[in-house]
Amino acid sequence: MKKKQVFVSFDFENDGIHRNLLTAFNNNRNFDVMYHEHSINEMQNCDVERIKAVVARKIQEATHVLVIVGEHANKCHPEQDAIGETNWQCWEIYKAINEGKKIIAIKIKSTNPAPIPLQNINTRWIMSFDMKTITDTINSF
Known about the structure:
By secondary structure, the protein is an alpha/beta fold. 36% of the residues lie in helices and 18% in strands. It is built from five helices and five strands; from the N terminus they run βαβαβααββα. The protein has a five-stranded parallel sheet with strand order 2-1-3-4-5, sandwiched between helices. The radius of gyration is 14 Å and the shape is globular.
């Protein structure tokens, strides 16, 4: 089976541990995860346009966007005016929608609010951080 090309969208400041867990499972040969991650490791550059260019390219290369939904998914970023959206994650989701990507959203906790861009669009929702469910959803969508 050809590996899926997945961009992982997450809140770098608050949900990085979950992204790292996904990466660890994906790199584990004993775990049957069928995707190649296209995420960037971190946004060290504070040039918003440069970050947008890198992230846009990564999203364009992906077949799927996997959104990790933490409790701060709709929190305003200090640079929201420069970003053009509430925060980076919202910008990534809108970019994925505009690129026609398949979007899967994982709620870390079922009570976490859905990011505004994911409301009323075709998204596959996963309500717990379970690797088998995540893998099965990626592979079937």
